[in-house]
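Hey, can you fold this one?
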Amino acid sequence: MTLKQTFKIAAKSILAYRSRSLLTILGIVIGIASIILVTSISAGAADLILKQVRALGGKTMVIQPGQDPKGPGDFSELFTDSIKEKDYFFLNKEKKALDLLTVAPVILETLSVQKDNNFYRANVIGTTEEMPQILDVAPESGFIFSEEDVKAKASYAVIGDEVRQKLFPDSEALGQKIKIKGKNFKVIGVFPKKGQVGFLNLDEVIFVPYTTGMSYLFGRNYFNEIILEARDEKLVPSLAEDLKGVMRSLHDIKTIDPDKDDFHISTQQEALERVGMITDILTALLLAVAAISLVVGGIGIMNIMLVSVTERTKEIGLRKALGATNSDISLQFLIEAVLLTSAGGLVGILMGGGLSFLLSVILSFFLKLEWQFIFPYTGAVVGFVVSAGIGLLFGIYPARQAAAKNPIEALRYE
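Sure. Predicted structure:
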């Protein structure tokens, strides 16, 4: 019997039991769809995060409190009070000597903002006039507060476009006063609609002088971080090392041991590498979970194929009586298993791709994220090959059981 004839017989047998065939491949469909969905979401998330990191530019560095987090338990150090005003004063004073263009402190908190009967929860950021320069944004109307305003603890605010729409739906925002934690702030500038820059949505922020924020809003005298911009991107690696020495001197740390530091410096390249590593680990973990469903699906296929062998005992006996060899019988059932799982793989790829696209649309339009749909072609190829391989692996035992049937006993089977 030729291979072509065996394929035809296997295909007819599958089509003869459509309901059973669909139930047989259900586990494979779910497993492959999960793999496509996971890899697509991971690729989309990585693309989104990397775009946000790159938006700050390759010349940007960030000094944050605590040691560089190496695990989930270390992130609590980001809320320590080790980055103080004296650090900012020194770095800002010596920025030319350190080859820095800008130095901007950041103290941030989400607070309720009020204008008459309109309320909005905004990210209120205490900083200096150099922060918009780092973020490459300027007020569309009005202006940013000055260095003198920072020193004078002026009650000035520059608001994002979303804040303007919520607090001033029917009036001009510029020159008006808003209330934050009971204190009045005059709106001196309004940013244009900008969206996400780095990890900050500029449409939802309010910039105030950090001195004003420390005195009246945040109740603390330390920063969440200090953002620095190098004169040249090529200087960033060496400059990061120089800044470590400067910070150790400012914090009276005598040793070069990183474990003794109460701060850490992140560059954009390090952030990109860290994001890549995290997404790779999460993808691997999620794929491992999806792989379990494939194994379960493979076991289900083997069980149903064994049931099929038992139910088709008479058919096997008849084929053997007509001259089919053990190899022909074994090959037929093996091909059936591979066809079933391959079909399940294709359906899973289409389902996973469709769900991924739908999710990307939801994230883009409803959550207003710059989420890009990325179809994982490599994952699809691997998924199809794996599904076919599962059919081959888990179809061997049922195929051998079918081939081992005695033709005389098979014909007598009721």
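Residues 72-77 have pLDDT under 50 and may be disordered. Let me know if you want another pass with a different chain boundary.
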